[in-house]
Amino acid sequence: MPSFDEVLKEAGEFGRFQKRVFFLLSQTGITFSSLFASVVFLGRAPENFWCRIPGAAELSERCGWTLEEEHNFTVLPLHLGNKSSNGECERLDVAWDTSISCASPLAHYGNHSAGNLPLITCHDDWVYEQPHSSVISEYNLVCGHAWMLDLSQAILNLGFLTGAFTLGYAADRYGRMPIYLLSCLGVGICGIIVAFAPNFTVFLIFRFLQGMFGKGTWMTCYVIVTEIVGSDQRIVGIVIQIFFTLGIIILPGIAYLIPTWQGIQLAISLPNFLFLLYYWVVPESPRWLLTRNKGEKALKIMRNIAKHNGKFLSPHYSEITISNEEVSNPSFLDLVRTPQMRRCTLILMYAWFTSALIYQGLVMRLGIVGGNLYLDFFISGAVELPAAFLIIVTIDRVGRRLPFAISNIVAGIACLITAFLPEDIPWLKTTVATLGRLSITIAFEVVYLVNSELYPTTLRNFGVSLCSSLCDLGGIIAPFLLFRLAAIWLELPLIIFSILAVVCGLLVLLLPETKGISLPETVEDVEQLSSHFGKHGKKRKHQDTDSYI
Questions:
Q1: Which residue would you say has higher pLDDT here, 209 or 419?
Q2: Distance CA 202, CA 200 (A)
Q3: What pLDDT band is residue 364 in, cutting at 50, 70 and 90?
Q4: Per-residue pLDDT tens for 495-530?
C-alpha cells in the first residue's frame, strides 16, 4: 500500500487542481486583512464636531440656521471668550428656549461675555458635519469616550484569539472545509449586523464574533493549502501572504470610494458569502480524512486531483497508508508531551508573540510621512510586498530556519540603531525603521510556514491555531507597550523591540530545518526531526522519495 506522499507525487504535487484551489482560497487573505485593519477607516476621527447647547436644535430649526451658522452662534463665542476651549468636549452651561433671539442668542444673558459664562463637560449631545462617516460619530466615541474605539479593536483581537482556540480545535475534529464554510458564513452575517448595530454594545458583541469567525477562515484556508501540495511546493504558504498584503493595499481604495463606515463594513464583509460557493469546488483535505480513517474518501479525492492534473493513479490502489495515530480531542498537552514537540511549541509561541508585537509597534511608530490617510496607508502596505518575494527567492535555496533567524536579528538591530540615530537626520531614521519593518514582516510570514511544517497532521490545525493565538495577544499589548514606554523615553519601545527580536532570532535556530521534508504525519515523525543538519535529518529525507532530498 502506498503512502500519502507517494500517491500525491503520482497525482501531481502542484498541478492544475492545486493551483485552482490555492487561488480560490487565497482570496480569503484579502477579506481577512481588510477586517484586521478596517478600524483605521471605520474609526476615522471626525473633521469637525461640537457639543450642542440644550435647546439649540429647536432654535436652529426655528431660525433656519445652517450647521455652520449654529456653530458660529454657539461655539465660536465660546472659543473667543475661552481660548482653551474649542467646544468639542465642553459647552456653555446655558439652555436656550423660544425667547432667544435668532440674531444674537447670547444677548439674552445681558452683560455676560462668553468667557464669563460657566462651562460644563459635554456628555452625549454632539453635532457632526458628517454624522455617519465613522464609528466615532455614529456612537459618540469622542472626548471622555475616545478610549472605546481602542476597546473595539481590542475586542476584535480577542475574537481572533477565541477563534484560534475554538475553531482551530473544531477544524481538527470535524474537518477543514466544514469549519471554513461555517466561518465564512459567520463573518458575513456578523459583518452585516455590525454595520447596522443599533448601539455600541451590539457593535462590540458582533465585532468580537466577526473576529472569531474571521480567524477561522484565515487559519483553516492556510492549513488546507499547505496540506494538498507536496513538500517542495509548500512555498505556497508564503505566497498566500501576498494576498493578505493585497487586502491592505486595496482597503484604502475601498474607503476612498465609499464615504460611510457602514458602506466600508459591508464592502469587506459581503464577499465572504461568495466563498460559500467553494463547497462545490474545494474538497476536504485528504490528509485530514486519512487521520480519521476515511481512506476511501481520501483516495477518491486523490483520483479526482490526478484527473484534473492530467495524471493517472494506478487502479491497484485500494487504500492509502498513514499512521494509525489519531487524536480525537487535541489539547495543549499533546503539543508539549514529547521533547521535540515541546521545544517547537514554546519557541513558536514566542515567535508569534514577538512578530506581532514588533510588527504592530513599528507600524504605529513609523507613521508614514504625509497627511493623506489613504495614500499613507497604501504606502505602508506596499512596503510589505518585497517581504514575500525575498522569502520566495531564498527559502527553497537556504531553508526556513536561517531566513527566519536572520530576519528577526536584522529587525532587532534596526530597532536598536533607529533608537540612537539623531533626530536631525529623519530620512535615515525612517529608512532604518522601514528596514526593521520589512525584516519583521519576513519573520511574520515565515512563522506561518514553519508552524504548519512542524506539527503532525492530527495536530496541525490545532497547533497552528494555538501558537498563532499569541499573535493576537501581542497585537493587544503592542499599543499599550508603545505609548506607555514612549511617555518615559520616546525610543524606549525600540530598545524593548530590539531585545525581543534578537532573542527570537537566536531561539529559532533551535528549531528543526524542514526544507525538502514531507509534512510529518505523527508525533513520532516530529520527534525524528533534528535541529541540526546531521544524521537524523538525512535519514528522514531518505525515508521519503528522492524528490524530497
A1: 209
A2: 5
A3: low
A4: 999 999 999 999 999 888 877 777 777 777 777 776
* C-alpha cell of residue 284: 476536504
The pLDDT score that the predictor gives to residue 547 is 29
Read off the C-alpha cell for 381: 502596505
User: Phi/psi of residue 376, each to 5°?
Assistant: -60, -45
CA atoms of 143 and 51, how far apart (whole Å): 10
Kindly report the CA angle at 294 between 541 and 175, in degrees rounded to 5? 85
Question: Which position has the higher pLDDT, 182 or 318?
Answer: 182
Give the C-alpha distances (Å, rounded to integers) separating 239 from 122, 162, 214, 363: 50, 26, 20, 22
Give me Rg for the CA atoms of the chain.
Answer: 28
Question: Nine-digit cell at 159?
Answer: 475574537
Q: Which long-range contacts (CB under 8 A, 24 or more apart) does 95-98 make?
A: 95/53, 95/54, 95/55, 96/53, 96/54, 96/55, 96/56, 96/58, 96/59, 97/55, 97/59, 98/58, 98/59, 98/62
* Rounded Cα–Cα distance for residues 394 and 375 (Å): 31
Q: Between residues 103 and 8, which one has the greater pLDDT?
A: 8
Nearest to 415 by CA among 483, 380, 366, 368: 366
Question: Rounded to two decimals, what is the model's pTM?
Answer: 0.79
CB 414 within 8 A of CB 501: no
Domains, the chain, with CATH or none? 1-46+135-312 (1.20.1250.20), 49-129 (no CATH), 330-533 (1.20.1250.20)
CA distance 488 to 395: 40
Determine whether 110 is exposed, middle or buried from the number of CB atoms within 10 Å of its CB (0-12, 13-18, 19+).
Answer: exposed
C-alpha cell read off for 211 = 473576529
> According to the model, what pLDDT value does residue 148 have?
82
